Backbone:
């Protein structure tokens, strides 16, 4: 009965009018609700994206922090303790070659006062150090191909270890932060500064500070006159009088060492994944100075420093971690987030051949001065040596002790090649005699970079550690070595 009354009421014109009015009001309310809902959803998505990117960034920072404190934790294991290390800070001094010959540890570590010997702790490090891999078990799977080398080489002798300059690392995979311009002069990254160290007069000077605001003092087309603030330096290159620093957000800061101020600033990309992974300065066949930047946005960019203009831009299927130009300027070795590297034409960017062999991502490459040989370093703990005359396979596979090969350098005369692991070991191979023999330089701490001086007389190694951070210098062994006092 009640149902019939409701149906009868709905049929009346007045009732229908009321229903329509209510429906219109409901539609208006619903449309407003939908609008509010869309606003809420948009806000939530934006907030999620902001917090997600922040989380990824913080994870990277915290990961690097963990790596930063790892060796300090190791000191605790040694019996020093972090607080004890800080208390001993003022008592840790530089080490000279003469002191090292008399038995002093080259890093000043007081092994005689510790509860563990250096040999025992080295064994512990070898057993417990965790190599970072993007592809699991790549280090173990690469061992069967590795060449057995004679480790009895003596090519560079320890000269001094200075704690007046302490190199630092911001990104745990990028280790090109030390550059030598002469046997006495070296540039390195120390926190938010780029510093110059002269081993001739033992003086440290700040070349560039990026903790605040930096901007170019010269006007060039394409230069960001507003500059950058609080730049996080991810990579560095110095050659002759030109210094290039790359940043986490795609920043490139160019400074001539013989001029005041900054000459040029630019940002390679505004993408989220914009980190500048590597920079190489070279002389173009025309005689002009160029530099090439490898970027995480999968591109490489070539800049002409005569005009301060972008001259070439090539894109690839994966992030580019390192690029090396052949001595004749015709070919590029490109490695990145892919086990296979590529050799490309430097003018067109077209692939010449693919490099098969590595099992993980690569972060280092370098050409031998003769232009026939080049090397690539990988997270599978190997350095592979290639010959452009036969690229069907690598001619040598050289194994690291602890982890990835993150930096490679050849001497200018082509006689030696240095490879740096993430920590503790730098290997110097006799490239002139087929990489059969090597010198293994053994110390403790993360490695920020290695660099031969242009005249091959010095080898500099940046050691990153809260307590024992320093700069190691080794000098080339000669038959006519002078006495230390001279």
Residues:
């Amino acid at each position: 009965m009640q149902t019939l009354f409701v149906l009868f009421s709905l049929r009346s014109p007045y009732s229908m009018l009321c229903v329509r009015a209510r429906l219109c009001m409901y539609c208006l309310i619903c449309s407003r609700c939908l609008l509010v809902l869309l606003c809420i959803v948009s806000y939530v998505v934006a907030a999620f994206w902001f917090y997600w990117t922040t989380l990824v960034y913080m994870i990277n920072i915290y990961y690097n922090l963990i790596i930063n404190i790892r060796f300090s934790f190791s000191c605790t294991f040694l019996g020093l303790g972090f607080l004890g290390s800080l208390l001993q800070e003022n008592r840790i001094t530089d080490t000279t070659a003469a002191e090292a010959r008399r038995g002093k540890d080259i890093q000043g570590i007081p092994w005689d006062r510790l509860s563990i010997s250096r040999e025992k702790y080295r064994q512990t490090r070898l057993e417990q150090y965790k190599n970072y891999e993007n592809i699991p078990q790549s280090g173990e799977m690469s061992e069967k191909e590795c060449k057995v080398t004679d480790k009895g080489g003596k090519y560079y002798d320890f000269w001094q270890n200075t704690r007046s300059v302490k190199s630092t690392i911001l990104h745990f995979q990028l280790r090109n932060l030390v550059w030598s311009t002469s046997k006495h002069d070296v540039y390195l990254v120390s926190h938010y500064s780029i510093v110059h160290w002269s081993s001739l007069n033992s003086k440290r000077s700040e070349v560039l500070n990026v903790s605040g605001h930096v901007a170019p003092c010269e006007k060039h087309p394409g230069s960001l006159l507003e500059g950058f603030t609080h730049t996080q330096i991810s990579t560095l290159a110095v050659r002759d009088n030109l210094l290039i620093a790359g940043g986490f957000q795609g920043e490139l800061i160019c400074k001539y060492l013989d001029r005041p101020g900054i000459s040029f600033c630019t940002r390679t990309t505004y993408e989220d994944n914009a980190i500048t992974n590597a920079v190489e300065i070279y002389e173009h066949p025309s005689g002009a100075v160029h530099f090439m930047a490898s970027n995480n946005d999968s591109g490489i960019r070539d800049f002409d420093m005569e005009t301060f203009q972008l001259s070439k831009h090539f894109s690839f299927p994966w992030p580019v971690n390192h690029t090396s130009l052949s001595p004749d300027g015709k070919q590029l070795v490109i490695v990145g987030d892919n086990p296979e590297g590529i050799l490309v034409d430097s003018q067109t960017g077209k692939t010449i051949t693919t490099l098969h062999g590595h099992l993980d991502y690569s972060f280092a490459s370098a050409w031998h001065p003769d232009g026939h040989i080049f090397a690539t370093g990988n997270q599978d703990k190997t350095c592979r040596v290639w010959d452009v005359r036969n690229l069907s396979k690598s001619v040598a596979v050289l194994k690291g002790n602890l982890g990835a090969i993150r930096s490679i350098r050849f001497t200018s005369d082509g006689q030696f090649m240095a490879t740096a692991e993430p920590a503790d070991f730098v290997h110097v191979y006799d490239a002139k005699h087929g990489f059969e023999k090597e010198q293994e330089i053994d110390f403790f701490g993360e490695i920020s970079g290695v660099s031969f001086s242009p005249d091959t007389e010095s080898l500099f190694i940046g050691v990153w550690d809260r307590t024992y951070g320093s700069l190691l210098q080794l000098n080339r062994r000669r038959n006519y070595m002078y006495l230390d006092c001279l």
Notes: The domain at 79-476 is CATH 2.130.10.10 (Methylamine Dehydrogenase; Chain H). The radius of gyration is 29 Å. The CA atoms of residues 248 and 275 lie 4 Å apart. The helical segments are 2-11, 13-78, 82-87, 97-101, 118-128, 138-141.
